[in-house]
Amino acid sequence: MHASGFPGPRSFRSARWVATLVAVFALVLGMAVPANAASGPVSALAGHPVKTSLAGFSAGNIISDAVFTNRSTMTEAQIQAFFNSKVKTCRGGIDEDGRPIVCLKDFKQTTVNRPADVYCKGYTGAANEPAARIIYRVSQSCGINPQVLIVMLQKEQSLVTHTWPSAWRYDKALGQACPDTAPCDPKFVGFFHQVYGAARQMQLYMEGRYFTWYAPGKTWNILYNPNRACGSSPVYVANKATSALYYYTPYQPNAAAIKAGYGTGDSCSSYGNRNFYNYFTDWFGSTQAQLPKTFTMGTVAVEGKAIVGQTLRASVTVSPQPASLGFQWYRNGTVVSGATASAYSLTNADRGAAIKVSVTAKSSGYVDGTATSASANIATVSVERISGANRVETAIAVSRAAWPSGTGTIMLATGDDFPDALSAAAAAGRAAGSLLLTPSRALPAEVIAEIKRLGPSRIVLVGGEGVLSSNVAAQAAAAAPGAKVERLSGADRYATSRAVAEASGASTQLLIATGNDFPDAISAAAAGNSIGAPVLLVDGVRSQADAATIATIKKIGAKTATIVGGEGVISRGISAQLASIGLSTSRLSGADRFSTNSAVAQKFFPTTALKVLLASGQDFPDALSASVLAGRWKVPLLLTTRSCVVVNAADFMQKAGAESVAVIGGVGVLDDRVVALQRC
Prior knowledge:
By secondary structure, this protein is α/β, with parallel strands linked by helices. It folds into 3 domains: 9-284, no CATH class; 296-377, Immunoglobulin-like (Sandwich); 383-675, no CATH class. Strands 9, 10, 12, 13 and 14 form a 5-stranded antiparallel β-sheet that branches. A 4-stranded parallel β-sheet has the order 15-26-24-25. α4 (131-142) packs parallel to α7 (191-207) and α7 packs across α8. Residues 1-39 and 43-48 have low confidence and may be disordered.
């Protein structure tokens, strides 16, 4: 179909004119319509629909450069599958030259080495390569769309759909260096040489150094037929790929050829470039580079508090639904290594930084869609320490924080042992009172000063004179002249607890805790103070509560009872007994004191807690004071160890979105690692 090698313009033009003259004689003799697809019409019997028009065909832009040179359109496997789909059964046999007939889907050839040059990257030969592999490898080497090579095989020799192709069709498969007027150049005979040579020739055409007479960006008069009497028309050649097709087949289809689809036009029709367009659009879609499909990306929403220790979660609405979403978090504009999930937990490294996230939507056939959130400046949880030099002074510091302007009620309890102090702490919330700790025999000067500052009208000593002496009562009265001083006590810790609960008045809600250890009772006291419910201490290891306890429960009118602690702390028998007298019972517990404390916090603060208190779960005095402050501020009390924040407490703070923390106690109780919120 065209000249071979690297001729200059003059020699090529001479060959073209010779070819034209021969073609004119062929037309006169009635032989200008060959049986192959190079220049002739295609019958529906060849396995193709009969088109009635070539909608979208443009003589000046037959195929775009981007499509023509897109080497990534098909893999070898896809090419092979395509060939298989076009010929279900090969008829086989022996051709007229005595050579076996093999269809393209089964064709194999031993290839040879070709050196790299400016047009192709070269080729390393191999034995028995399938046609699909040859086409794929040549397309990668020479940068030509494998679909283009497939279409050229069809339009030149019908090789893709032929069920009994003679061997000579492979010898001149693409018409490369096979002029219409002369035999093929021997150097280009054979399937591999044809495919490699044609692909390389296309790059040479597009280079535009040797071939200039259909150069893109100009208007050329292009013939309709080798017979110049059939005329021509001006065509603005829009791109290199289209010019390459005209160098290869220098005719445009006339109106009759276009109207005929795959069929026969008139005596002036030519079909090569028409058939190229037909096959390509039927088999592979548009010959023009399609505008890439894009996603519509919504605004990236980031939920969560921008505070160290919290988790941010990104989401975005994408249309249409992508195959996948990728996430990348950034700190001050720099990629955070490994932060590629939709959720990101803020660490100390993010303190004071600007954090944002980029979301990428991906789907086959779509340009990646990307959207980025607004930046969030990361704050830290504010932490304060409320403490004194000892347990007594810490209780005073808590009192000042809770009651900066004074209060009408003061609960006085010993700081030397926990049982009566637990009852006092549990009652302080319901009484809207401050809890002050003192030694048994006398009030320290600091406590006397705090009593005076508070200006109470009522002072309640919790515990008998063996716990808080008459001297303490007298000093308290002297510190607050006119205040009513009273004492609540019993024969033991349980009796004292009952007395305090009854004195607090009626309540439909009740919390039950063990009197044998302090942690669960402190968790209960903090919750009780927050909701205004009394805490009743029981001997939990017993199978039944005593009659006096049941009487107190009935006296205060409790309807529901929340048991704080597992069955090893408060027995199943006590739980069943409470249910038997008509109470609706539930149990909050965990594997240890810290998980029980977390269960209590989650129960009474199920959604958010912007402020929390941290106190020791290993020593009771400061935690007692903290339980009262928790009730006053209506915030959860979390217990932890001396040197770090236990996992239960840290997880609760993160989930609840805590923004501020008050650490109750000095460094001897909770050290600076707790203030730094160092997770255990």
